[in-house]
Design goal:
The chain is α+β, with helices and mostly antiparallel strands and 222 residues long. Helix content is 19%, strand content 32%. The protein folds into two domains: 12-123, Jelly Rolls (Sandwich); 134-221, no CATH class. The chain is built from three helices and 14 strands. The strands form four sheets. Strands 3-4-9-6-7 form a five-stranded antiparallel beta sheet. A hairpin with a 2-residue loop joins strand 12 and strand 13 (191-195). Mean pLDDT is 82; it is low at 1-21 and 154-162.
Length: 222
């Protein structure tokens, strides 16, 4: 099974998938909606229980959260308020009409000095009922692998797989600091990187921790 990453513009991986697209002018960040739609379409076509693509804004120089003051989705005919979180996650609809109407996303950062960039992140965040077993982590790892492969396209994932970094497992983020899990290959503060192997597929052994799981991302090794 080949492990692949997505072939977006200016791809950056560190357990997240990042792409720097769009432009920042006169204190505003502007980007076309069609790129979001294309990636959301891939997720909606797949059978993913947990894996998803999320979109964030961060400062290019510092990688800090590029907090949002206001935002709009604009077409030639209409204008809508943009929905976002305090962590600058863009909560965008999957809307064919916005794609057809060539909509653009316009964001005003709280700090006008911020030079914002868009980061596309493969992750799982709806994990409130997720049992931390080896079998479930295997399934989560398979979802990440499938989504990354679908996003990368045939040419990259099938013909140039030998040039790509390897997905070795998952990185789990917990609500508590200083988490320790015996099965983890590396734990630092609230995150643990866990290598997932094929023999975990039907293994119902539970990983022992009292910390609350918040999210998971692919563990990518360059």
């Amino acid at each position: 099974m080949n492990k692949v990453m997505s072939c977006f513009k200016a791809v950056v991986f560190a357990a997240t998938l990042g792409a720097s697209v769009g432009t920042a002018t006169a204190g505003e960040f502007v980007v076309a909606y069609d790129g979001f739609y294309d990636r959301l379409k891939v997720v909606n076509k797949g059978d993913f229980q947990y894996a998803q693509v999320n979109f964030y804004l961060s400062d290019i120089a510092t990688n800090d959260v590029c907090k949002i003051k206001s935002g709009k989705i604009i077409t030639e005919q209409q204008e809508f308020d943009l929905t976002y979180t305090d962590q600058a996650q863009l909560l965008l609809p999957f809307d064919k009409q916005l794609d057809t109407d060539k909509a653009v996303i316009v964001v005003k950062p709280e700090n006008p000095q911020h030079d914002c960039q868009l980061k596309l992140q493969i992750e799982a965040t709806n994990l409130s009922d997720f049992a931390l077993t080896k079998a479930n982590l295997y399934e989560l790892n398979e979802e990440f692998d499938e989504l990354l492969s679908d996003l990368s396209g045939f040419f990259v994932s099938k013909l140039m797989w030998f040039l790509l970094p390897e997905q070795q497992g998952v990185v789990l983020k917990f609500a508590d600091e200083n988490v320790a899990i015996s099965e983890a290959d590396n734990c630092k503060q609230s995150r643990c990187a866990i290598m997932v192997t094929d023999d975990w597929q039907d293994n119902q052994t539970k990983l022992q921790t009292s910390a609350r799981l918040i999210s998971a991302t692919p563990w990518i090794v360059k």
